[in-house]
Amino acid sequence: MRIDILTLFPEMFTGVFGCSIISRAVKGGYLELHTHDIRDYSTDKHRRVDDYPFGGGAGMVMMVEPIARCIEQLKSERKYDLVLFMAPDGKTFDQNYANRLSLQENIMILCGHYKGVDERVRELFIDEEVSIGDYVLSGGEIAAMAIVDAVARIIPGVLHDETSALLDSFQDGLLSAPVYTRPADYQGYKVPEILLSGHQKKIDDWRLEQQLKRTQERRPDLLEDI
Fold it and tell me: How far is 161 from 209, CA to CA, in rounded Å?
């Protein structure tokens, strides 16, 4: 799978993409990541990519031309399954969305900044607009990182134990059950006896019971779709 990210701040991705699961996915050949500096596609001598909005108002708007040049250049080199734009008014990203993206071959992600991008970018080049929550960030970079991380870990072969991803919160519409490790007794706080029993069927039943309980307590809205 290949993901191309269009951004004004490619340096923001260096640390995140060089660590943990994302790094493992890249080194293992399961994921190919490329960042593209939109400023490189500006014809302005100062590499300017933004301007004042027509009609007045606060803030600056990213211009259509540098973004268009970048997208068109990439599309001339390969076919993309989806071009995404990180936007607070986009479709809310969730686990089902991540699962769907993990099945694609080539994805492009545009990160907005400032007051947003010229609306013509969204009309002409974007397939889907995506939000990671009902709040506003300074730009789309952090949101794009979240999406890459969520997708990378469910690509087959990335995790040593592929069943691990299947047991994550939200994969089955429920929150995960509590987990424990050594020691079995920490200052009088003990691991539930059922987890030490070795009876897998009873353990599985307990975990499902805990998933339902935790979901009911913390995210009852998730149970409406079950």
Answer: 23
Cβ neighbours of residue 52 closer than 8 Å, sequence gap 6 or more: 60, 61
> What is the rounded CA–CA span in Å between residue 50 and residue 30?
35
Q: Are 119 and 15 in contact (CB under 8 A)?
A: no
> Is 110 a domain residue?
yes
Q: How many structural domains does the chain have?
A: 2
8/101 same-domain check: yes
Which structural domain, as residue segments, surrounds residue 127? 2-152
- Pairing assessment for the beta strands 189-190 and 185-186 based on DSSP bridges: antiparallel
Last residue of one domain, picked from the residues 102, 120, 152: 152
Q: What is the pTM of this model?
A: 0.88
Rounded Cα distance, 89 and 222, in Å: 21
State yes or no: pLDDT of 121 exceeds 90: yes
Whether residue 159 lies inside any domain: the answer is no
Average pLDDT over residues 31-42: 98
Tell me how far apart the alpha carbons of residues 57 and 53 are, in angstroms, rounded to a whole number.
7
